[in-house]
Amino acid sequence: MNTDDLIRSLSRDVPRVSRSAMGRGIGLGIVGGGLITALLVAMVLGIRPDLHTAMHGFSFWMKWTYTASLGIGAIVAVIRLSRPTSSGLRGLWWLIVPVLLLAGIGISELAATPSREWLGMWLGASWKVCPWLVLTLAVPIFIGLQWSFRRLAPTRLREAGAAAGLAAGAWAATIYCLHCPEVSAIFVLTWYSLGILLAATAGAFLGPRLLRW
Amino acid sequence: MQASEAQLRHWMTAGLDGDAASHEALLRALVPLLGVFYRRRMRDAQDDVEDLVQETLISVHGKRATYDRDRPFTAWLYAIARYRLIDHFRRRRLSVPIEDVETILIVEGFENAASARMDVDALLSTLSPKQARAIRDTHIDGLSISDAAAGAGIGASDVKVSVHRGLKALAARIRGERT
After folding, report:
1. Exposure winner among A123, B39, B117, B135, fewest CB in 10 A?
2. Chain A contact set for B59 (CB, 8 A)
3. Looking at the domain assignment, is residue B106 inside a domain?
């Protein structure tokens, strides 16, 4: 095809693009995938029966604040890495803040508990499945983000994949909180973070294959 | 005469607002710019230049939502052009010769700097005439190193060294002015 014809045909289709179009596309992908994840949690795992009471307690909000703040940070990273001029993952060091805060809570909880109960606090009742459930629940959100990436232009594919995996993992963990009855901070710090990290690693691995354009 | 950053940016933002005529004007203006960009990087495969230009136009069109209106347009454009070039090499499973990588990297710094919409002529006039001419020939007019060397009556390596030193001096100067 000659270049003139190409330009003419491209110029036939010039829809208006608002400033917020990119953010909206990413939001839509996450919310769309998140709905599927929420449906899976509700139908397959089941919402914890004491959710209403738990929402008046500290540990539920501690978990949500932790996973949601990681999720927000990851979305910021996804938005940055979606532009071709992106300078990479620098500037995300503050994501360490929620991790450190949760570690602080974890240490104070340990200090207030007799040491023979520490192992039980750390492993809870679900340490074997928690990371894998978070990873599995991240899949719909990751697919949703793939859909968003159609119109985006990442040039650092591995980093963009990792950020998408991190976002998917963190939001999957946030939704998983509706099911998971664990209460201790070191449980969340270890097993939730491990699940989220697994999702980010999978994303980094898949990024160069899936995000090419 | 190549379109200026301000003009390209104006067309781009008008296109984003839905003005098809501006969008078309933008794509047309990009053809020579991208031609120069790819020609000087594809010494052995000039036939691929037109394909690359077309692929880049399609990317510019398809990915236009990722342009941030508050940022320089040329930086965004060349980021896409570089990605298309790397993807092209990857698909052909070619390795990039090391001196080309160096050109890509140096030019990258230069183009980002240029996108600060500083007057290129004013900048070049701060260099020695030999360096200014070498940069103008190879990086603005898109001549090959050997053509530039023949035109200036100097050796090819002399041109390369002049370009390298000149760009480095410019980059240092621009960084100094920005901070």
Report:
1. B117
2. 153, 213
3. no
